[in-house]
Fold this sequence. Notes:
- The complex is a heterodimer.
- Chain A is about 45% helix and about 15% strand.
- Chain A is an alpha/beta fold.
- In chain A, strand 3 and strand 4 form a beta hairpin.
- Chain A is globular.
- By secondary structure, chain B is mostly helical.
- Chain B has three domains: about 5-150, no CATH class; about 160-220, no CATH class; about 220-360, no CATH class.
- Helices cover about 60% and strands about 0% of the residues of chain B.
- Chain B contains 17 helices and one strand.
- In chain B, helix 9 (about 160-175) packs parallel to helix 11 (about 200-250), helix 10 (about 180-195) packs antiparallel against helix 11 (about 200-250) and helix 11 runs antiparallel to helix 12.
- The radius of gyration of chain B is 49 Å and the shape is elongated.
- The model of chain B is unreliable at about 360-365 (pLDDT under 50).
- Chains A and B meet through helix 9, helix 12 and strand 12 of A and helix 1, helix 4, helix 5, helix 6 and strand 1 of B.
Amino acid sequence: MPETILKPEELQPVTDLARKTLEQLDRILLGRKELHRLVLIGVLSRGHILLEGLPGLGKTALVRTIGQILKLDFKRIQFTPDLMPGDVLGSHILQETASGKREMVFQPGPVFTNILLADEINRASPKTQSAMLETMQENSVTLLGTTRELPQPFFVLASQNPIELEGTYPLPEAQLDRFLFRVMFDNVDADVLNQIISERRRGELPPPTWQMERADLQALFQAMGKIYLPKPVSHYIARLVSATHPGAAEATGPVNNYVSYGASPRAAIAIAEAARANALVAGRPSVGFEDVKIVAPPVLNHRLILNYQARFDRMTPSRLVGELLNQLDETGLNLPKDVVLANA
Amino acid sequence: MNSSHANALQSFARNLQWLLTLRLAVQLATVWFFTWGVVVLALRIFGVQNIYWLTMGLPAVAPLALLAAWRAKKQRAPLTKIRASYDRINTCGGIVMAAETLDVDEWLAQLPGIAAPKLRWHNRRAFLMLSASAVFVMITLLLPNRLTHFPGHRPLEIGQIVGQLQAEVKVLAQEKIIDAPRAAELQKQLSQLQDDSLGYDPGKTWEALDHIKQSDSDEARQAAQEALDKTTSLAEAETLAKAMEQASDSGMNATTASQAAQDLASMLSAAKLENGLLNVQIPPALLAGLNGLNKEQLEKLLQGLESNKGLLSMDISNLANLKMIDPATLANLQAAGICDDPDALADYLSTCTNCSDELCMHPGRGGLGRGGPGAPMTWSDGASEKDLKFQEHSLPPTPHLSQAQLIGVGKAAPQLSGNDVSAQHGALDNSAAGGGAANARVILPEQRRAVQSYFKRDN
């Protein structure tokens, strides 16, 4: 593939689109700028996002707002233990045609949409959860031997409640790996709450003042493909993902002590794509190390499988990834420890 | 690529190369200094004392610098990594990295003015180690020789003893107790001993020194004994000469005078003053005409005897100053040099008409014998009672033997009843034999026979 790089005049319009999207998100949903940026990066990377947080923090509102801004179809499924795969994917029903014949007609499920909010996904049975696997990975649904493509773009934004875990089915690692990001929804501070109370009667969200056209979204996706990934950065991503495996050459002490299984190659791909999206949002035609450092934590924190020792020592994947990012030399220059680089 | 960025990148690469070279050079120099110091120390311990050759290690620092430069060049990071570091430090967002393969001049132009990243080397520890190693080398080079010798190669500290012996030999030579060649030979032996003495085998040195010391002491003791004999003879002769001088004034007859002169001559002749280690010279003219000496000649003879006594005393005093003879010998010599009172002998010479052949050898009255009841008692330094305090201690009364009553004779120890009083020992009561210092020995069975044979009495 010939290596090219976007010209400033080519990149500027799409960067403006991303900037406007973020502005709308920040205007409608208060106090979560970093989260909005990550969600936008996830959308641009065509990845699925697992939102984790307590009820009432605005997960559904975020997904609905994105759908509004991007002018994308939005559907929501509340996952329950008795939810069946057919309830998600759709099913064939017997219908009488105009000629009087009866035939099986496919009735699409809610998954046939652009943005699917899978609310409390860990409450569904493994059978139903696994039905999501193909849709998330292949963007298609196969029923009775017939494969049906999902409308593009297709994103799954699943939410998970970290409390009330009785009667839930934790997502298997294979399914977790299909999420690009796992984003934590934290509580907002008092100032934001005050702003919400004073400006949002009954919590109603203001409508977006600007919406992205489908063509603009396609332009963004096309620009994403032209963001240049320098070899030192791709090498850094590869080293970083490799270092999450215990016993690897550059694995840190905590990784060796606490990690049972490291991140998969899909994680490396996810980091590269997300870093590209971050560079695009930042208005740069190439990926830098700083982009990797921003997107690596949400990409890796649900992909590391820790051992029991980590539970005893209260070690979390987020802390592990943070220490790994601090200790791993980005450039591989491997300067002596007593020699440091400083900005002029 | 934009020229300013290219220049900054080149500057950064150059600075990095210099810094790594300097760092490596400091490390190599530190290692070299420590190694060199150890080698210098080892060489000095094993006998190499030429500091000039040992300092030849200093120029080796120059090849080390070249080696550091070569090694740093070999280990130089690829330009791609240097470019990546430049990009990262300046947060260029990968544009500088992309410039390696793509035309990104438009993007580079949008980047703010960027300077080469600064390199900081926390070199305190490195230079501390370098300084320590350099000081170590200096210390190893400047250490005194005596501290760099193994104990086996370290010379024995016998300078003081050799100096004392050399002084003794010098005095012996000055007093002509030993001849000059012998003195020179001893001096040479002492010097050689001092040079060749080794700490790891001091026995031979001490043995040789003891031998010389013993030799000197023997010579000195012999000289002292000779001086004592000759001084005694001189004193006796002096006494007789003084008596003759006094008797001549009192009308000593010619026969007695002649007899006394013969005694004096035989006395001086028997003393053999001319022989031995400390020869004494009496004017031959006086010795030849002893029979007819007038008063003036007697005076001269007395002066000669006196001066010779003084010379002998001075010689022995010199030996005593070096502690070559004991103070008792010196005191004896000084006592022997005191002339006896010649009055009695002068009276005897004046009054005797038919003197015996050896009139001067008569003991007792007029004789020169020093012993016997008639000899005058000579008091030396008496004990002083100053500052002495005596405590009176009255002894307990002792029952008189006349009050004793024989009640019987038994072989066993007396049995005392409750009313009997044990014998009182007076001042010796509760005292132990030998002041309590007696050493009680347990005789082992194998020693018993030897002890019994020792105390065995023939009768």
